[in-house]
């Protein structure tokens, strides 16, 4: 076997919240099913991070590998959609059970599809759920809902799903545990001249061509999907780390913020990337008309939009839509103050306009929270040259 060249040790940039993606190759047992052989070290890494006040969302593969073992009548070569769908359904509980055995804290399974994250209403609900789980000190275990998204099973999309989840929860870092030390200039398993790449500042076309195809019989993703995930994360201002989850020493050092692997940096800040996205998401017809006090709170104090500052809502927009927030200039002419993703529809907003946050549930019979538009979902248009 080729002797792999070692990655130099480097310090991990500071982070508070991260998404850790663990692939099937780190969980599959040689005889079939799942094994804690490598998962134990990764669980210890997560526990160490939690002990230091950090938050982690775990994106875990392994369901198909686990289900394949339970479906004794199916051979490992059976890759039909129906068979893989059944394997994924059976294996989901096995995957979560494996992780739960390694923690003395509660875990929560969260199954997502890309449609859940493309649809703005589902996006809000998914983010609210994950944020609340983290607040309760629960470890979310996320997987793609393979039983209804079988077309994506062959794409290794848990890498890309992890990047999307990282952006969803405003993570600082995307950690991808794989079965190889990091990114090389070529496939190190077949090319003895392959050189390790410790750090990447920009994912150029040349860097992308260095990625090979899938390298494991149990997983569906190769290095290319990991670089695609890093590219998505970078666009959201999130850095990515590729490391060998099979190497106990590498995992142990990572808990001490020392990396032997590849760090993929980004030039965009998280705030810049998010604000840019919010600024360019198409707004629906209609607007939220707010008073002068709300304009000051949003523009000068960086506050969320609360129902008390709303005069009325115009249009027929729904919860999760991108809506313009309009105030009145000194001359009395309306102008767009900000735009953001609303937590309430227009009809609901007109029912709670001018009220205190504590009155929302009384007026509607339910509540999606005290913020009509949360400050994290809001961008001030005047910051981008649009003046009253």
From TrEMBL:
Gene3D superfamilies from the UniProt entry: Acetylglutamate kinase-like, PUA domain
Pathway: Amino-acid biosynthesis; L-proline biosynthesis; L-glutamate 5-semialdehyde from L-glutamate: step 1/2
Catalysed reactions, semicolon-separated: L-glutamate + ATP = L-glutamyl 5-phosphate + ADP
Primary subcellular site in the record, as a coarse category: cytoplasm
A matching Pfam family: AA_kinase
UniProt entry keywords in alphabetical sequence: Amino-acid biosynthesis, ATP-binding, Cytoplasm, Kinase, Nucleotide-binding, Proline biosynthesis, Transferase
UniProt cross-references to HAMAP family, sorted A to Z: ProB (MF_00456)
UniProt cross-references to NCBIfam families, sorted A to Z: proB
Family label: Belongs to the glutamate 5-kinase family.
Name of the molecule in the record: Glutamate 5-kinase
Organism the protein comes from: Rhodanobacter ginsengisoli
Originating gene: proB
